[in-house]
User: Fold these one by one.
Assistant:
Number 1:
Amino acid sequence: GDSVTQTEGLVTLTEGLPVMLNCTYQTIYSNPFLFWYVQHLNESPRLLLKSFTDNKRTEHQGFHATLHKSSSSFHLQKSSAQLSDSALYYCALHNQGKLIFGQGTKLSIKP
Amino acid sequence: DAGVTQTPRHEVAEKGQTIILKCEPVSGHNDLFWYRQTKIQGLELLSYFRSKSLMEDGGAFKDRFKAEMLNSSFSTLKIQPTEPKDSAVYLCASSLGGGAEVFFGKGTRLTVV
């Protein structure tokens, strides 16, 4: 069945360094719809960005991601991490009306 | 506009009890989801409704978990009987459907002792 894989459970970075969180997916559908959700401490997950267009960069709140169907990837990036970026990040695949989530990556930014 | 509302926010149950979690989706949303969140498994889908019809009931969660949507503005998740391994945060979410943004409630933290 369809699935989403996030290989890093925890990413720890120093403020100001670039961020890259990995996301790959498996699906039988030729036009996948991918999402990144962010969950700050004691809050519920909320949408960060989404894409269904191959090879097109999508950006929001300083983060960006590009859907690459050739490699089934949708990695999340940011040029310079901020302390406020510390949170749990989920990659998700839209599948027949519902979202299938990866296991999540906890991003911890240190001063 | 109100977001997704979940009650209670916290629930403590003894093993073997029946508990019912409640959810009010965003007004006008067609799709409603129940997810379970744990540190190990992340977000797992329990149930999915589209226009009040049950579309998916989460496979492995079928035996003790039952979600219902009595009307377009209210859903419940019953866990019967509860087990300690059910301790988790249960999130209700809703969306307009068709790949639109999914909005999550604040969740119910369930502890089974």
Note: The two ends of chain B are 37 Å apart (CA to CA).
Number 2:
Amino acid sequence: AQSVTQLDSQVPVFEEAPVELRCNYSSSVSVYLFWYVQYPNQGLQLLLKYLSGSTLVKGINGFEAEFNKSQTSFHLRKPSVHISDTAEYFCAVSDPILTGGGNKLTFGTGTQLKVEL
Amino acid sequence: EPEVTQTPSHQVTQMGQEVILRCVPISNHLYFYWYRQILGQKVEFLVSFYNNEISEKSEIFDDQFSVERPDGSNFTLKIRSTKLEDSAMYFCASRAGPVHYNSPLHFGNGTRLTVT
């Protein structure tokens, strides 16, 4: 079974400061990894994903994440945050082997990023 | 850009009542999902649907839940007899193909279900 751990439930940060949101996963097989963002009263929007290839993945809105297999981590980073980045961020994992379920996602508990002036 | 649309955005129902949550996935998508998020908790997988049948379901998806794609465009989630603990945000999602085809999962904005 797969699981995702997001240790930080809230991360406050000042505008223009860098931020890192941590994500660790456990799985007995290789995985696909994702970061989703949820703005208030909205659905989940894909920020970036790792399927294979380069371990440094760049996504939308200036975010990037690095897949580290030895540490089973997929931390999300942004060098300079903006007020508009205030949202809930979810890390998720999926099994790359196609199952009848069409690769369901297993989510972490989320990290609330609050950007302050 | 095509979107997954869900209606209603908020539904209030009494315990024991049946409720149907509606979703219109993106038109050329083949895989359909329901997830839910209880307030303050993580997003949880409920069920996936492909080729007109359930392909996987979680432990949450018991006999009180059912899904249907009645007309080739809508994808519904029915809860037969709602319980207080069914109160949550329910997200519909769809994708064109399997994830290893680099096919992203698109989520709707959710239906907030409140059971009183």
Note: The CA atoms of residues 70 and 100 of chain B lie 28 Å apart.
